[in-house]
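Changelog-adjacent note: as of this version, every example in the card shows the full chain rather than a window. The one below runs 216 residues end to end.
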Amino acid sequence: MGILETGILGGFRKKAGAVNGRKHRGQDLITGLYRISGKVKEGTPKRLVTRKKFALLNVFLNSAASLVNIGFKKSKHGTPVNTAYSFNYDHAFIVEDEVVKLDFAKLVISRGHVEELEGFQMVSENGHINMSWLEQPQSRLCQYTDKINFLFYRALKKGDATCVHSIGERGDSTASVDMRHIAGKTGHCYLSLSSADGKLQGDSIYLGTIKVAKSL
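Full-length structure tokens:
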């Protein structure tokens, strides 16, 4: 119920029909009633999904930052991690009934034209991850001296990554990473290549998951 304070021609306070009356800095104001926007209700779950995406992708990229900083260059988006975030955001998630998960197979930590390894194989033995690949003819984008980088990522709440810069060179045909510190744990593995001088990069490769075999 509205209350007249200075007669029938004066201002009023509280609700009167579809309006509210109040004083503000000595003036009588009349405002419409506040209505809850349907858009706000509709948007809330979407905002929650967006926040979850932001958190998951940031944890992953920041955990792998030392390799992302090699695989992506600075751009209008800012740091290499920011550039990687913008590149990955549109395809990096699986969303089902507002449950958000990273799509690890589609995440990219490096981009470029350096050629991939051929015939790549990976096994875990005695606390190590052992890798091998085939010899390839050399070209501008395929050199024996190309560096091979490795990422082992565990999807914990705050993320946990083992980033190894240059586990070897393309011409070695084999490489081994000592993972005894997390023997028995399973993680997502990625490989990326860069030229010897670091000026050229290749598209990262998702290798799948592997469980680190315990030492004998």
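Structural remarks: The helical segments are 38-63, 65-71, 80-88.
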